[in-house]
């Protein structure tokens, strides 16, 4: 008799749940010994049990005779549809556990139901008047270009890219299942702690990058302008003829700047 056959149904279910949480057979063995106060199953048996669940949707031993019974019934399809309609961000493994279906069976039914994975779009949050301000800016810009075709050459465009040290949203692992694209959008704060890389571009090319090791403040931004940016500008162009463009980050509009 194999070791896994000596496990009760409730013990097998707990092992599968632990694997969904820890993804580590060694940790599952420790959890088992702590919970049941007896020798845990081997790593091989733990992985075999999890694989059995993924393939069959059950932790019970397979019957030795008879044809396998299909789980792709109308009832199960409706359960799958309702589950993802209620919680579209549920992972396949979690849904497999909750619905007591194997991962492969679940995926087949999801395909028949037209459920596809969609990744959220990551955007900066916009204020209510941003759209009107952008349209106004575009109108002014086009008017200035019409009056002087060399006007774009006088503009220095600047921006920062923030490499966050925490709070990063991994869109690859964040999936929503639906029959149509739900257009999920995740907003994030612009001025989050992290390493910030600043650069500028103009008709003469790209200039930079410059680095901020901490969150950009009015003082640190002004120091960069005085020590790095302005001297570099003076070397390449006439300061009296340029338009310096930066966004609405608080540091850019600090009273010291």
From TrEMBL:
InterPro entries: DUF4817 (IPR032135), Homeodomain-like_sf (IPR009057), RNaseH_sf (IPR036397). Residues 57-79 are annotated as: Disordered. Residues 8-60 form the DUF4817 domain. Pfam families: DUF4817. GO terms for molecular function: nucleic acid binding. It comes from the Eukaryota. This is DUF4817 domain-containing protein.
